[in-house]
Amino acid sequence: MNTSTNADGTAKPNAPGEEGAAPAGDLSLQEQATAILTRSCAKCHTGATPQGNFGIIDNVAALLDSGRYIIPGNPEASLIFTKLAPFGNMPPTGALKTEEVDIIKQWIQSLESNQVVALRDTQVLDLIQKDIQSSVAVADQPQVRYFTLHVPNNVGATAEDLEAMRKGFFKVINSLSRSPVIVKPVAVDAKKLIYRVKLDEMGIPINVFESVMSDFYPFSQQYLNNVSDAVSILASQNDSSLRAATLSNNYLIRADWFMATATLPIPYERLLQLGANQAALDQQLGVNTLANINANRVQRAGFRNSGMSTQNRVIERHAQLNGLSYWTSYDFSSSADAANVFSNPLGPVTLNGTREFTHEGAGIIFQLANGMFAYRVVSNAGVALDKAPTSTVSQSGAPTEFLAAMVNGVSCMGCHNAGLIYKKDEIRLFAQTNVGDFTQAEFEKILNIYPEERIFKETIDRDNAFYFNAMSQLGIDPKKPDPVNQSYRFYNRSLTKKDVAEELGITTAVLDGLLANEPFKSRWNTLRNGGAISREDLSVLLAQAIEQTRIEVDVTLPALGDFVVTTACMFASQVQMDNCVVAP
User: Fold this and answer.
1) 3-state secondary structure of 464
2) Are 264 and 561 in contact (CB under 8 A)?
3) Strand pairing partners for 148?
4) Which of 1, 73, 108, 315 has its CA 20 to 30 A from that of 217?
5) Is 218 inside a domain boundary?
6) What is the 3 state secondary structure string of 135-151?
7) Where are the alpha helices (DSSP H) in 247-327?
8) How far apart are CA 499 and CA 538, in angstroms?
9) Does any domain span residue 364?
10) Angstrom distance (rounded) from CA 458 to CA 452
11) Which of 433, 460, 478 corresponds to the end of one domain?
12) Is residue 315 a part of any domain in this protein?
């Protein structure tokens, strides 16, 4: 699990040349250009107090909308280009490589003016109402939920952004599904901004989905019949009808929020129904790891450097009760003494034998019935963790707020977008070379559970083939950047005044009036000066802002709060993320 940052809202998992990275030739111009801008500019030009009051380098739509930072088709008139050395003096750490400047230039030249045709929430309701009446049997309507990308569309997301989000949404839906078949959400509008999904087709019980949405979804709102205009009256009628048909107050979910939140540890684990700990998951999947190791029913590879850690590591395959793969890693905070897997290759220590290693934690990857992968991070005692401690593993290209931590769900999807990562075993050869260091029983055990390279490679290829077939059915190329990580970064980009207005469903003029008063005047002050705010800043005052500006809707607050990753909440605990909930 080793990803690299692309912070424009259309990101890639790894920089070219890094482990697991898509080759540069497989990346679009936008992906290459935004990766360069992120690496070279994001440190100074994002956040609440950016250098030069320019803090939207991670927001392509805002750069295009600015009328000066990017002029589509005209790099010589675009500040993003002209500020670069040798024309300008950016970045201050040193000029970009000539080929990097050329990529940015070519990208701007390739852009066309983005004519946004906004889709309002009242129109969304109308389209959904027509769809459920015409396309969904009455008996199926309680299982139906709708997901929309209308807000990213309205803020000016590029066609490339929107396509990445569609693919990301398809991937997330199927990464949360316990169904044996691939689920393909149904588009209900011509622009493919609204999708219909049936929960029973995903194998998610209604009560499980509803509990997660009730606890975390921040955009739940009821349309009231207290405004005299025809649009609001129709919206209220549609809303009431849809609530009655679906038996849900959360029949409509923002797909961009869902991708960025349902892939974070607590919502992710609840939707996937992973159980309280590793023991519960193993029982659910029919896996007995210690019995399998004792009976030589595993395949292992051990090696010195995994790329995500400087320590040695062991990966191990088991079979679920249904025959599908269950992979676990043994992760260490050092490679000395009982953590040295070359001297102690027969762990874990609970086997009560000889040559047992002592590990710090583990990462689990198990194959879903549809071929997609699911993930869990645990301690050496099997306690569920929201993230792995950076002393054992880390990701060099994580979103800034992750603080290099491997976050269960979204980080794993990015790392393994191209499937299971093959690692050549070094333990078998070490034992054969140093056979005198082991007893005959120890040596035979090593040969049994650390197979020959050909056998191990064939096993990984076979498991990956099932995953590749699933991704192919979704129209996703696993060699391309992970669309879930791209979508996560888009949702968590710096938000301009235009972005915030669309999030609230109001005009910028109405937002200006809101910004003249507290607490918005202080908390969202940067918007008054052409700056941007963070997703956390928006979440804190979201409900209050809607209540003060939209009398035609009534906000339903999430019971726990929006789940938003921030630097502060990541600092709060090395392994848990409960503090990442922004309380209403």
Assistant:
1) helix
2) no
3) 194, 254
4) 1
5) no
6) HCCHHHHHHEEEEECHH
7) 255-261, 265-272, 278-285, 289-294
8) 10
9) yes
10) 10
11) 478
12) yes
Would you state the structure tokens that stand for residue 129, as one six-digit string?
């109402």
| Angstrom distance (rounded) from CA 278 to CA 542 | 37
Q: For the chain, how many structural domains are there in total?
A: 2
What are the backbone dihedrals phi and psi of residue 563, each rounded to the nearest 5 degrees, phi first? -95, 105
Count of helices and strands (H, E) across the chain: 25, 16
Q: Smallest Cα–Cα separation from 8: which of 52, 91, 53, 70?
A: 70
Coil vs helix vs strand at 488: helix
Q: Which residue in 561, 567, 478 sits closest to 215, CA to CA?
A: 561
Local structure of 158: helix, strand or coil: coil
Name every residue whose Cβ is closer than 8 Å to that of residue 96 and which is 6 or more positions away in sequence. Answer: 36, 40, 84, 85, 104
CA angle 36, 41, 47 (to 5 degrees): 130
In angstroms, rounded to a whole number, what is the distance separating the alpha carbons of residues 270 and 434?
Answer: 47
Distance between CA atoms of residues 395 and 386, nearest Å: 15
Phi, psi at 65, each rounded to 5° = -75, -20
Q: Which of 491, 498, 494, 503 is nearest to 546 (CA)?
A: 503
Does 346 fall in a domain? yes
346: domain range?
Answer: 278-382+419-478
> Can you tell me which residue has the tokens 């190329």?
477
Q: How does 505-544 read in b/e, with b if 16+ C-beta sit within 10 Å? A: bbeeebbeebbeeeebeeebebbeeebbbbbbbbbbbbbe
Which of 61, 86, 110 marks a domain boundary? 110
Contact present, 556 and 220 (Cβ < 8 Å): yes
pTM of the model: 0.88
> Cβ–Cβ contacts within 10 Å for residue 223, how many?
24
Helices 508-515 & 497-504, crossing angle to 10 degrees?
A: 100
Q: Please list the rounded mean pLDDT of every run of 10 residues in the chain (584 residues).
A: 33 34 67 81 78 78 77 77 77 82 82 84 97 98 98 93 97 97 97 98 97 98 87 95 98 98 98 97 97 95 86 97 97 94 88 84 97 97 96 88 95 96 96 96 96 98 98 96 95 95 96 96 93 95 95 95 96 96 88
DSSP codes of every residue in 521-545: HHHTHHHHTT--B-HHHHHHHHHHH
